[in-house]
Amino acid sequence: MKGMLSPSLMCADMLNLQSEIAALDNLGVDYVHLDFMDNKFVPNITLDVSLIKSVKSVLKNMKRDIHIMAYEPQQFFDKMDIGDSDIVSVHFEACNDVHSVISEIKSRGAKAFLAISPDTSADVLNNYLDEIDGVLVMTVYPGFAGQPIAEGSFDKIKQVRNIIDDSHKNLILEVDGHVSWDLCQKMRECGADLFVAGSSSVYCGKMDLETAVDMMMKLIK
Question: How far apart are CA 104 and CA 161, in angstroms?
């Protein structure tokens, strides 16, 4: 599977989001990463549901990659207009009934990803491999951009890759957290397919967006 890019909109210029989205859409980017937090599961709030919904109407080539860091995430699906071609990641740690949440995502035509935080064992995935379309491995603790990579992240990516390969399922392995210029290639070598790029790379502010996206896409190919 080729490496895919999902720039994180929470790291973009909030005063010019529509132009930022349009720029990404014209650069051949696969997904745009949209973080939603409820200030309960994680102590922060980022993009609201109305903005996440409105992004859908302006995309031409990219697809939405929605990461819901909230308890009982299904309560937000209607407000985000979850549907065909979306990726929707929900946290194992935030769902009372993971199976039903996954089923709800898939009933709407979206791809269901299960997210696991750094302290969650990769073994929990074994109960959901027949239902999910991918796994989101958090390589930082959810809630804030700009964190250093969590200890053991490369081993976690490798472990998840082995679980996926042993299952013979065609699942996508996504990584989110400190996906930097110097670490993304190692993440790729460990088995990552889809890379959430934010303040450590595409939105580091040291180069224009086109140059940054081109550089990252070459590193993860």
Answer: 25
Q: Which of 30, 65, 176, 193 is catalytic?
A: 176
Cβ proximity of 195 and 175 under 8 Å: yes
Residue 176 appears among annotated catalytic residues: yes
88 CB-side CA count, 13 A:
27
pLDDT digits (tens, 9 = 90+) for 2-32: 999 999 999 999 899 999 999 999 999 999 9
- Bridge partners (DSSP) of residue 8 are 33
CA 176, 177, 180, 184 torsion-angle sign: negative
Catalytic residue selected from 35, 38, 65, 133: 35
pTM of the model: 0.97
Task: Specify whether the backbone of 85 is left (phi greater than 0), alpha (psi in -120 to 50) or beta.
Answer: left
| Residues 106, 169: Cα–Cα separation, whole Å | 16
3-state SS assignment for residue 175: strand
